[in-house]
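Hi R.,

Here's the chain you asked about this morning:
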Amino acid sequence: MSNRLRRNALIATMAGLVCAAVALNWKYSGEEVSKRVEETGTKILGEATLVSSQENDGNLALDEGEIYSGSDYFDSARLTRQQARDSAITLLQEAADQKDADTAVINQASESIQVLASYTLKEAQVDNLVTAKGYLDCVAFMGDDTISVVVSTANGTLSSEDVAKITDITMTETGLPASGIKILTAN
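And here is the predicted structure, written out as tokens:
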């Protein structure tokens, strides 16, 4: 009974930490997005806007150039990454919470939630440390044995020195070998 109580406490603690991380990420990224929208006047993909029913020359077409300009790719990528993780965690939590769930299923769900939480923290660390090195923006996507890091630079290219810096940060934060790291520039 004591092991079961510990396991349930661990699951509850991890779920609480993941929820707290999501809430903090949502709060701070929302403030950053709001500032960028106010500064540039550019809409963010996925952002709700009230649209009137008035037609413009018989057309209600959106200007996609406004939606995808600037650093919107990074904001959209972060949002998509977080939504996918939230969805996966919800499904895992539901599987673990079923009253007739097998102990092996509950344990596997708990381990998977811990792995996803670990990925989230490592991605955030890589994102923050790469931008702290002077790059315009960064978003990382971590998998089992790989990580892809998308970086925005002032000139749109990465030198071998840039790749070495980003690889070093990523290896340090994730523990992955250089062969498991893919670095891309955003166009």
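One quick note: Residues 2-40 form the longest helix (39 residues).

Cheers,
M.
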